[in-house]
Amino acid sequence: MSANALDRLVALLSKLPGVGKKSAGRMVYHILDGDPSYAQILGEELAGLHKSIRRCGICGGFTETDPCPICSDAGRDRSIICVVERAQDLRIIEESREFHGVFHVLGGLIAPLEGIGPGNLSIGRLINRLGRTDPGQEVKEIILALNPTVEGDTTALYLQKVLKDFPVTVTRLASGLPVGGDLEYTDRLTLSRSFRGRVKV
Amino acid sequence: MSANALDRLVALLSKLPGVGKKSAGRMVYHILDGDPSYAQILGEELAGLHKSIRRCGICGGFTETDPCPICSDAGRDRSIICVVERAQDLRIIEESREFHGVFHVLGGLIAPLEGIGPGNLSIGRLINRLGRTDPGQEVKEIILALNPTVEGDTTALYLQKVLKDFPVTVTRLASGLPVGGDLEYTDRLTLSRSFRGRVKV
Predict the structure, then answer these.
(1) Residues 44-83 (B) with a CB less than 8 A from some CB of A
(2) I need a surface site. Which of A43, A91, B144, B161 has the fewest CB within 10 A?
């Protein structure tokens, strides 16, 4: 069965994250067995994706309009900027409905071993945002919503240093036991962080 | 972040087998972060899939040409037909390079509870293939490569009855312990089959 279009599609789909050759094959057969209009619409959406989605000039998130709906929403609190590593982190935080300020996408984390230094991240643009606010709209707090990993810690530390000359409070998301977690199955580092970050009840 | 093209694509991708909303989101961000030509090519392949792939008029497998490369390959042994449930099973068997005959795709298995009877499967076309062979090209064996499930067993039994009036040997793939498996973790039914199907060493 050397159906070329089929093999090409399997090869393309297996480049997606979390998709191997087997699951790509399952997808293609599922599409072939199904309504042709599904493949047509999915194909058109994909082919047009990069045309319709761009990066927001302010926060760096993916958007159809520039500035993005969040940055142009007058109801959002512009005095708090939540700094995230990637645009998808922004979506996860939005879905939690916990945060009502604005965002800033760094575009990565400092990782010297992978050759990613502060210069590769949009730190300069973040600092520009601090200076370029209208009176009464000053940024008061920067929340670092970076993963609690070595790279996240390094980047948080660097941003803390860079931002210490600005009249802005820098905070970081709490790290500790996940809700529903079990002490027995918690690693030593997480346990240690949850001790250091213990709160009065 | 109400980027509509993005949300539409996540909704479309999460209809694929094994893809949830979260993994669909990861895929879309992966595509957005990547080379725009990837999304373009993937989109075009998908949109054109149903145009370039059809079903083979002989075996029922997916193909770009009709008859498919297997059915039109003079090097394949036309005296053995391997009967499979779905076109993807054909691909799996081809990849094992174990079988050098031709195929027949049933298009499903008999499942009365789901309303699938023998009339919904391409059994009539299989029987037609037995009669319509050139001299010296008679079908001698039909291998039922159906899953060892209730539906697979029912369908195999039905085909056995239907085919018993034809001068053809009907066989079924051996069922038993998987290679590398462990007796301790083998279910009772599989163990029972591997006893009944035991072979002399």
Answers:
(1) 44-50, 52-53, 61-64, 68-70
(2) B161
Sequential DSSP letters for A85-142: SSHHHHHHHHHHT---EEEEE-SS--BGGGTB-GGGTTHHHHHHHHHS--TT----EE
Closest Cα of chain A to B136: distance in Å?
25
- Asked if ipTM goes beyond 0.95, one says no
Three-state secondary-structure class, residue A38: helix
Residues of A in contact with B4 (CB under 8 A): 64
In angstroms, what separates the C-alpha of B185 from chain A's closest C-alpha?
24
Return d(Cα A47, Cα A41) in angstroms, integer. Answer: 10
Is A86 an interface residue toward B (CB < 8 Å)?
yes
Summarize the confidence of residues A108-136 as an average pLDDT.
88
Rounded to a whole number of angstroms, the distance from the CA of A98 to the nearest CA of chain B is 14
What local confidence, expressed as pLDDT, does residue A134 receive? Answer: 64
Segments of chain A assigned E as strands: 54-55, 62-63, 77-84, 101-105, 141-145, 169-172
The C-alpha atoms of residue A42 and residue A27 are separated, in whole angstroms, by 13
Minimal Cβ distance to B1: which of A25, A52, A90? A90
Binding-face residues of A in 137-176 toward B, CB within 8 A: none
pLDDT digits (tens, 9 = 90+) for B143-201: 999 988 899 999 999 999 999 999 999 998 888 888 887 878 888 888 888 888 887 77
- Distance, CA of A71 to CA of A59 (rounded, Å): 7
Condensed to tens digits (0 to 9), the pLDDT of residues B42-92 reads 999 999 999 999 999 999 999 999 999 999 999 999 999 999 999 989 988
Q: What is the pLDDT of residues A73-88, one digit of tens each?
A: 999 999 999 999 999 8
